[in-house]
Design brief:
The complex is a heterodimer. By secondary structure, chain A is an alpha/beta fold. Chain A has 10 helices and 10 strands. The relative contact order of chain B is 0.23. Classes of the chains: A alpha/beta, B alpha/beta.
């Protein structure tokens, strides 16, 4: 397939644009912020902050990825649906993504104004694509190796050395084609190798190193690297100390051509991606005069 | 038959290949384009070397005019500028002689000391013979990056 722009609900973006998707947790227990935006007003303030920092997309989540207390669909809806409506009212043009794997939650947030369904769990609920199609929303198709939502990887291996890349490509492309068949617009389908999901650190490093192979599928690629364990294990650093490692991985993915960056730190990631985008010749310098006077 | 003559500096930042997101020479570029636009559809260029000639060619193209080498041109575009040593942040750093040198050019292009011009990184080889930078002819006069630029347009007498 050929690139034809990116349409995320009410907004369209050119193929030369790299987009920041800022994480906004409506959870009491997510690994990085540890509940800092659990209160709705705190989450709303976080949206205001990342919008001011230039994020094009917010990714609102009501359930942390790691194992923990079971959150029912009703509870998940209570955490995110009214909040999506409030954000939509305050920022009519902002792209709102919701991190959910449940179709019934997806339908409720789309009705409340969401543009993107970010299915971090690789199609665990097969009806999510139908919801995206029904609401003309975008969908993020991730690779998890088929694990159950909210489980940690345990002794997962892929067929051969390097097989994680082949598996990530095969599964995300199959998911993308399923979304397309369900009626989601081609330009509204994004793939994500899902670092750390169903993967050990060696897998996530290899996916980073070979991200260009995912980009070569032609589907726009989202990467979610921010402060993850593969960075922590690689450098021996705790959660609050992983920014530099995250940005190094970000730079490698940017050079390969990843289009969307799901992040905690918008400003630092934007600088990193802009710099790499310019090195790659996809973005002019902001203002170059040295030697050209 | 007399034709209009314009003077522009050979600033590489004017080239499309060196375009930034924010144009660092927006005001200068606008002045250059307005001067070149007054030269008519067939413009002859006088420049001291390949890189100023490239700047001139790109301005002519941007003005929608054609580059010609014959005497039947509708206008003449001359490329040149003053010293590149006008400030501590200038490409050639500050030379205390630069300001007076440029003031001299500002009065007349006759009798230029080309040896001093070379020391001051001034591009003056093509300037002799141009009319003075009189009021009314000067569209731009500044040294925003420590290099003295003039954009001027002299209508046909």
């Amino acid at each position: 397939m050929t690139a034809a722009g990116l349409k995320l609900g009410r907004q369209a973006f050119g193929d030369d644009q790299a987009l920041m998707m800022a994480i906004v947790n409506r959870t009491p227990d997510s690994f990085f912020d540890k509940g800092a935006t659990w209160a709705e007003d705190a989450a709303f303030a976080r949206v205001a902050e990342v919008v001011a920092q230039g994020a094009e997309i917010v990714d609102i989540g009501g359930i942390k990825a790691a194992p923990g207390v079971e959150i029912s669909a009703a509870e998940e809806r209570a955490r995110v649906v009214d909040f999506v409506a409030r954000v939509r009212e305050a920022w009519p043009d902002l792209v709102i993504s919701v991190d959910t794997w449940r179709a019934e939650v997806g339908a409720a947030v789309c009705a409340a104004g969401a543009d993107v369904l970010n299915d971090a769990w690789g199609g665990a609920d097969p009806e999510l694509v139908d919801v995206a199609a029904q609401y003309d929303a975008a969908i993020v198709c991730t690779h998890t190796g088929g694990v159950t939502p909210r489980t940690r990887p345990y002794r997962i291996e892929y067929d051969e050395p390097g097989g994680v890349v082949a598996a990530a490509i095969a599964d995300t492309v199959a998911y993308a084609e399923r979304a397309l068949a369900a009626g989601v617009a081609r330009e509204s389908i994004v793939i994500d190798p899902a670092h750390d999901f169903g993967k050990n650190t060696f897998h996530s490093l290899e996916l980073t190193r070979r991200l260009g192979e995912m980009v070569a599928t032609g589907w726009p690629v989202l990467v979610s690297l921010s402060n993850k364990d593969f960075v922590g294990e690689t450098l021996g650093l705790d959660v609050g100390e992983r920014l530099v490692g995250t940005l190094a991985a970000t730079a490698v993915c940017a050079l390969a051509g990843a289009r969307i960056y799901r992040v905690h730190q918008v400003v630092e990631t934007r600088q990193t991606v802009d710099m790499v985008w310019s090195i790659a010749g996809r973005r002019p310098p902001l203002r170059a005069i040295r030697g050209l006077q | 038959m007399s034709t209009p003559v314009a003077l522009v500096p050979g600033v590489l930042a004017l080239l499309p290949a060196y375009a930034s997101i924010e144009d660092p020479v927006a005001e200068l570029r606008a002045a250059c384009l307005s001067a070149v636009a007054a030269l008519g559809p067939r413009v002859r260029v006088r420049a001291s070397g390949p890189s100023p000639a490239r700047v001139a060619a790109s301005l002519v193209a941007a003005a929608g005019a054609e580059l010609v080498e014959d005497e039947a041109a509708s206008g003449l575009l001359v490329v040149g500028n003053g010293s590149a040593k006008r400030s501590e942040r200038a490409p050639g750093h500050l030379d205390p002689r630069a300001e007076d040198f440029d003031a001299g050019l500002r009065r007349t292009f006759a009798g230029i000391d080309q040896g001093l011009a070379a020391e001051l990184w001034a591009d003056t080889a093509c300037l002799p013979g141009l009319p003075p930078l009189a009021e009314g002819a000067v569209i731009y006069d500044g040294a925003p990056f420590g290099v003295q630029y003039w954009v001027a347009l002299w209508d046909a007498p």
